[in-house]
Design goal:
Blueprint: H1 14-27, H2 30-43, H3 52-58, E1 72-82, H4 87-92, E2 101-108, E3 113-120, H5 125-133, E4 145-148, H6 155-162, E5 167-170, H7 184-192, H8 198-202, H9 208-221, E6 224-225, H10 230-233, H11 235-249
Length: 250
């Protein structure tokens, strides 16, 4: 627990906070979790009871270092709304607030989430994808194809994916030019997608798998975050991703 740690040693083990993560995903309130620990102490003698500030500080989400399963990666993003205020409260009290949300960008192998990044709503999908993809350099040996929708249609993305020997199955825009302009792989994609049966022949239809992951996360944990501040809200989707991988591996 305290191996290689500098400063004051931890009083509570990491396994305790991994256990509390499961409760946090559903209640999303540190004080409720503190009360839960105190209630468990009455049933289980000597059960640790950290305070809410310790729980907030120690809860963290980490992805396992498992290898990518299969030969396919899928990229997409979704949004989570900030705050608990519902539409009725805004209407009843005549609140004219601009809706805020944050984006969760993921790369998945259809079995688990292998990389994710959390950004503000004004960050584009392509820059977030490139930042995630750079961290996968040593894990792309068995990957043959990468699926993404038209939000990731850029020559830079095609070139980055192709240089690792991966075929980018990215939906290009309808009015895309067949000129290369520095990206031969995108030119090839434009020509291939003129075939009406391209989606079925290439396997692009499997992109629905990433939508099922987002659906599972939001059905289990909801699509609204309890935190109002962006710095605090970053923690919640990360915990949800970690728990999704944990539940899926059971």
């Amino acid at each position: 627990m305290n191996e290689n740690k500098r400063g004051r040693p931890y009083r509570y083990s990491e396994s305790l906070f991994k256990f509390l993560e499961c409760f946090y995903a559903f209640v999303k309130n540190y004080r409720i979790i503190e009360g839960l620990c105190r209630a468990l102490r009455k049933i289980i003698p000597n059960f640790p009871t950290p305070d809410h500030s310790t729980i907030h500080r120690r809860l963290k989400a980490e992805l396992s270092n498992d290898k990518i399963a299969g030969n396919m990666l899928i990229v997409d993003s979704t949004g989570f709304r900030l705050g608990r205020t519902n539409e009725y409260v805004e209407y009843r009290h005549r609140l004219r607030r601009r809706k805020k949300w944050i984006k969760l960008h993921i790369i998945t192998d259809s079995k688990k989430i292998v990389r994710f990044i959390i950004t503000k709503n004004n960050v584009g999908d392509s820059p977030a994808f490139r930042e995630m993809f750079k961290t996968l350099k040593n894990e792309l040996k068995d990957v043959d194809i990468l699926l993404a929708d038209s939000a990731y249609d850029s020559r830079e993305n095609f070139n980055i994916i192709s240089q690792y020997g991966i075929k980018p199955l990215i939906k290009v825009r309808k009015n895309s030019s067949t000129l290369s302009k520095g990206s031969p792989s995108r030119r090839l994609a434009v020509r291939e997608q003129r075939d009406a049966m391209w989606s079925k022949k290439s396997g692009y239809t499997k992109r629905w798998l990433v939508e099922s992951i987002f659906s599972s996360i939001k059905r289990l944990f909801g699509e609204t975050l309890s935190s109002r501040r962006f710095s605090y809200a970053l923690r919640e989707p990360a915990i949800l991703v970690s728990l999704f991988n944990l539940f899926h591996s059971l």
